Structure prediction request, 191 residues.
Amino acid sequence: EPVIADVLDPASLASLPRTGRVLYAVGYDRRSGHSIRSVYVDGLRNFLPSLAARLVYVSSTGVYGGSEGGWVDEDSPADPTTESGRACLDAERLAAEFCGERGLDLVVVRYSGLYGPGRVFRRADLEQGRPIPGDPEGVLNLIHIDDAAAAALAALDRGVPGRVYLATDDRPVRRREYYELAASYLGTPPP
Prediction:
């Protein structure tokens, strides 16, 4: 039974049902006309008063910023270099403060880039034969949407309160490898 609500419209959140656990996974649509900070931080701030349960907050590995090709793990310091990474980290902190004040469980899952059916990075560029900017030997950290869903369920069911988890594929992929494979699936020439 879906409940339609808008995190930027506090009145619409009044109809949210009470539940024993919540997966908060609000995405950002650049076409919305709202800033990423407004959606991630202000939207969460609007939602939190309706929370009376365990919260699994979906965040991003973008909070780590530029790791200059090095590995990161759950204990790596967050040092975002983009506005989206800063907004995600600020939202994580807001959730932690709120849950801490009210004695609610909080689990944070930081996802890398999602891919899968209907989610192909740079699809339009590949289909239109445009060059793809960036170092072809650089890496992409990704997670398939099915694995992302499994990670969300695991966090809801077994996540340890207060922990941060990374959800990503088991190995980074070279940009060249990813775009060549994506082009072959799309039936387009490699970039």
